[in-house]
Amino acid sequence: MSVSPTLPAHLRPALLADAAADESSLRRFLQGLPGVDPVGVESRAAALATRSIKSTAKLRAIDLAISMVDLTTLEGSDTPGKVRTLAAKARRPDPGFPDTPTVAAVCVYPDMVAVAAAELAGTGVGIASVATAFPSGRSSLEVKLADTALAIEAGATEIDMVIDRGAFLAGNYGKVFDEIRAIKAACGSTRLKVILETGELATYDNVRRASFLAMLAGGDFIKTSTGKIAPAATLPVIHVMLQAVHDWYALTGDRVAVKPAGGIRNTKDALRYLVAVREVAGPEWLDPFLFRFGASSLLNDLLMQRRTQTDGHYSGPNYVTVD
Amino acid sequence: MSDDSEFAESGDRLAVAKTYKLFIGGAFPRSESGRTYQVTDADGHFLANVARGSRKDGRDAVSAARKAFGGWSGATAYNRGQVIYRIAEMLEGRRAQFVDLLRDGGEGQPGPVVDAAIDRIVHYAGWTDKLAAVFGGANPVAGPFFSFSAPEPTGVVVAVAPQQDSLLGLVSVIAPIITSGNTVVVLASQTRPLAAVALAEVLATSDLPGGVVNILTGDPAEIAPHLAAHGDVDALDLTGAEGDLRTSLERSAAGTVKRVYAPPISDFGRVPGTVRLRAFLETKTVWHPTGALSLGGGGGY
Amino acid sequence: MTLDPHSPGVRAATDWDYAPAPESAAIGRVRDRYQMFVGGSFVDGGGDDLETLNPATAQPLSTVSTASVADVDVAVGHARKAFEGSWSRLSGAERGKYLFRIARSIAERARELAVVETLDNGKPIKESRDVDIPTAAAHFFYHAGWADKLQHAGFGPSPQPLGVVGQVIPWNFPLLMAAWKIAPALAAGNTVVIKPAETTPLSILVLAEILADADLPPGVVNILPGAGDIGKALVQHPGIDKVAFTGSTQVGKQIQRALAGTGRRLTLELGGKAANIVFDDAPIDQAVEGIVNGIFFNQGHVCCAGSRLLVQESVADEVVAKLQERISTLRLGDPMDKNTDIGAINSAEQLSRVTALAATGEDEGAVRWTSPCPVPDRGFFFPPTVFTNVSQSMRIAREEIFGPVLSVLTFRTPDEAVAKANNTPYGLSAGVWTEKGSRILGVASALRAGVVWANTFNRFDPTAAFGGYKESGFGREGGRSGLAAYLNTDDEGI
């Protein structure tokens, strides 16, 4: 594994261990990260969004995107029936085309994990659960740990936690770090997605800092949003996060996964994300192990576009199932 | 001075004659060549021996002007305005001397001409802190950028002063050049150099930093070609160079893409516009991203 | 597809790449033969026909009738007649409406023009589509608005047109340069004789159709395709009142020399060797983007290209590593493909010039790195190239390469950065990257360059003056100061 010197000297591995040694080291580390120029990152994102994905490349990208979907329902009105149909859709997204890939996972609240687990046993579709007093994260660490344990015991294979944005914005990076650490410990081998809630972090500089903070603390994924706050995932935000995991890999040799969530509703958007993944993080991230879409309505648009590609004519919403 | 000088009578004592030297870097050196030439009045009577500057004097003057450029161009516009205004004050104080000089030289209407020269300096003194606003400004570009354009001085200008209007012409050439922060090497009128040397004394006793204005006397046709080709000269003002000399200087200027101001006519009696000021101004445009205050700005994708 | 979302391992998807996405060449409606545009008519010139190539294939694209020296005389005559006739009698408001018409028409035919430009020039379609053509239209829109407001431009109460303007433009932005030249000239009330570059005559001849469709009075704009001899005859023609030239410093000097003593007005937009200065506190990822854009935009065929990267020594290794990684993702190839980042070098001649200059880099001891991107086996292509260990004395650090070749130099202090940046006879543009506001303003002020991009690069806008210091030329294009080049004020010689 080659570690290329793509970050400033003070971020080199020897010093990396010290970065989280104490609150002031952590602050120095995070605030020492190079800044992000908003116009620059937005114009790069806009330029990459003009990539034209046609024919075979489009079909492959659609299949790839389907396999990356964390099919999500996170509503107060969720019921076992709703979760069961979601699981059925995840398992077999397009019954008319059995070669359609399954999605990566379903994503539900902890109390719905058992229902999903029963439906998805043996299918290879994961069960992700939001925990840690989702979406605000406003509770004690004890409650968050209990929430996490509840989900894992019920069969969750992935945990989506939220960071304490209040602590982050107050500059209390140590508290955020410790919480992620504690949840990660509670997760054991269950993969942990760390939701930064970028819409509340307000600046790209903060997105980069929070990304590094989550990676330093051992998060397996960095994820943009809860879906409850606007703006949720945007292309420039994901650019910053993809650059962060790329830099982290150069630094440590570890590939951290990325998950945009919220606001990605159609195939065109999804393809733009895949282009960003390919060109910013690198082609190795074009893998559902390393990249996911947190979405609900996106899947049906992907399926419809897939049919357009395979049928050779435009498809319509009545040819894909509404679940 | 040579023994055959005539001395002007002043009452019953023998007046002390002035040595007319060059003005380089704030000092008054003789020509390194040791040469002088005689200046006469309109009737051909001897007036003075004047230093006949050489190619090397030109070179020294360019070095002095280059050395002075950083400080003068970097001075605040307010400060440059004060300094130039002070030149007018000093000239006013020596008004009588200049009137005599011009009269001796046979130039018409010496009084009004000296007044006009003083007023011209005052006019340009007031331009220093207006230029950026009048010739620069914010550019409303179609994108998330703050862009502005601002005038900056070109650098070292070599000027051939008008051969006839030895004071007003000279002042009308020098003042706009230095107003915007350029420094200048000026080749004075060959036949009427006395006002230029006297002006150098005014400049030396004003607050103008040494080297901002350098004045050479001598034969422009001898010195100017070397300066027109000089690699460290940025621009030429050829107001006082005409005909073949002008053409050949312009041709030399092309060697390093110098800016050249060579007006078809000269009329120093009128109120100046801005063409001389603009002749030795560069426009610098600077861009910087602005960007949104929050991530909302990126939400449109 | 067999991808396990829950375990790392087989990465079957990593070979996912974009399928070819070519723009249709038919949209360009390129004809077999084009004629000159003189006196409002499309006519054959007295010169030999020239064959213009598609540089991406090295195959003939079209044939263009060229001007003879006698045609220059005829065209200048038409321009003079138009100036003294209808055009100078027209109110500014009416002139402005012609320019608005032209601007609209460029926008309406934008897709066609983009295709023509890319086929003839070799630049990526995404650049002709997103930059060249829209910016050309924007220049006409901008100057249209000036036509009846010249008294407010800051050059006195009644600025006057100069008369007949002779213009010579280069091949790197054929239509955009035509717009930069023609729009302000017409807004100020002048008439024009313009010569496009020999290798890129097509888009301006499509513009000629637009001018004709706009009912622009005959002779107001005359377009003479041809080689350097026609340009020379044009700029030296005694019937011309003003010359505007964009091109090499070498030719610019010849023109300035030739015009000595004529009293004709001249503006020159010449070469450059811009420094792009990266400080250790820069937003590194955006700086890398800016460096890439600075030197690889339009294959580096840009007079203001950031061809000298000056990077602070403390971050030099990091920046170069990131840069090489980023450059490796640039897609070189068919300019008509919508995903192509770097297109073709404009001509075989230019390719050999770039190749030869790059070779001197190695000879003089610089370390050469070339992007591993595949290079097409036909057409004129040069892969993105970065030289490190470059010193100021090397030719690659001093001479304008006008190709996708970057020289990397280092510095230790801001003073050293500025000294090195200014250590060139050129002075067209410069870049500075730092998050420290005071340093941006300090460095921007110290740089002897006509355009300074801070935390960005290669931005152009008709409202913002563009042009050089020192041997990069004189005069400005765009903004209020750009108008000055085409106006007479009544205060000469005072």
Can you characterise this structure?
The complex is a heterotrimer of chains A (323), B (301) and C (494). Chain A is built from 14 helices and eight strands. Chain A is an alpha/beta fold. Chain A has a single domain (9-309), classed as TIM Barrel (Alpha-Beta Barrel), CATH 3.20.20.70. In chain A, helix 3 crosses helix 12 (235-252), helix 4 crosses helix 13 (267-281) and helix 5 (80-91) packs parallel to helix 6. Chain B has helices spanning 55-74, 77-93, 95-104, 110-125, 131-135, 168-179, 194-205, 220-229, 243-253, 275-279, and strands spanning 9-10, 13-14, 36-40, 46-51, 137-139, 145-153, 156-160, 183-187, 213-216, 235-237, 259-261, 281-289. In chain B, the strands form four sheets. In chain B, strands 9-8-7-10-11 form a five-stranded parallel sheet, sandwiched between helices. Chain B has a three-stranded antiparallel sheet with strand order 5-6-12. In chain B, helix 3 crosses helix 4. The longest helix of chain B has 20 residues, at 55-74. Chain B starts with 8 loop residues before the first strand and ends in a 12-residue tail after the last strand. Chain C has 15 helices and 20 strands. Chain C is globular. Chains in contact: A-B, A-C, B-C. At the B-C interface, strand 6, helix 9, helix 10 and strand 12 of B face helix 8, strand 18, strand 19 and helix 15 of C.
**Global geometry of chain C:** globular
Task: Report strand order across the widest sheet of chain C.
Answer: 14-15-16-13-12-17-18
Largest interface: B-C, 51 and 51 residues
Q: Give the overall silhouette of chain A.
A: globular
Instruction: Give, in spatial order, the strands making up the sheet with the most strands of chain A.
Output: 7-6-5-4-3-2-1-8
The total count of helices of chain A amounts to: 14
For the record, give the distance between the C-alpha atoms at the N and C termini of chain C, rounded to a whole number.
81 Å
Q: Which structural class best describes the helix and strand composition of chain C?
A: alpha/beta
Main features:
heterotrimer, A: about 325 residues, alpha/beta, TIM Barrel, 8-stranded parallel beta sheet, 14 helices, about 50% helix, globular, disordered N terminus, B: about 300 residues, Aldehyde Dehydrogenase, Chain A, domain 1, 3-stranded antiparallel beta sheet, 12 strands, about 20% strand, disordered C terminus
